[in-house]
Amino acid sequence: FEAxxxxxxxxxxxxxxxxxxxxxxxxxxxxxxxxxxxxxxxERNIVHLLQQELGHRLAPRAEGLQAETSQMRRVQxxxxxxxxxxxxxxxxxxxxxxxxxxxxxxxxxxxxxxxQVELRAGGTKLLREELAEAEKELKGLRETFRLLQRxxxxxxxxxxxxxxxxxxxxxMASPSRAHHLDGFAPVDRYGVVLPLSQERFQES
Length: 204
Description:
6 helices, mainly alpha
C-alpha cells in the first residue's frame, strides 16, 4: 500500500506521476469539461456568425428570386388573360358573323314576303276590278232578263236579228231553241247570254 500510495501525509507515486504532468487528477477532469464547454460555445458562435453571414449574402438573392417569381406570375397571368381575351374576341367575331348571316337571310325573306304581299295586293286589286266589272255585267244582264220577260215576242226578234248580223239565216235557227228562248234573254251559238241594254232593246 505504501509502495503504491506512500505513507500518510506523503505524496503517493500516482500523485507524483500526475504532478509530473502538471495536472492534478480532480482538477484535470474539471478543466477538460470547461474546455469542451468553451469549445462548444465557440462553435455555436461560429455557427451563428455563419448563419448571419449566409443570411446577409442570400437575402439579395432571395429578394431577386421573389421578384422574378412575382414577375413570372404576372407574365403568366397576363398570358392567360390575353388568351382568354383572344378567345372572347374570337367568339364575338363568330357571333357577329352568325348574326350578319341571319340578318341577311331575314332581309331576303322579308323582301320575298314584301314581294308576295305586293303581288297579292295587285292580284286582289285585279280581282276586285274584275268582280266590280262582273257585277256591272250581271246587273245589266238582270235588267235585260227582266225586259225580255216582259216582252217575249221582241226577244225572238232580237235573236233573229243577232243571227242575221252574224251571217246566219233565221231559218237555220232551231225551233226548239227559239221556243226555249221565249221569255228568256238571248244567247249566242255557244250558249253565252247576250247583254242587251234597254235602249238597244227598244230600238230593236
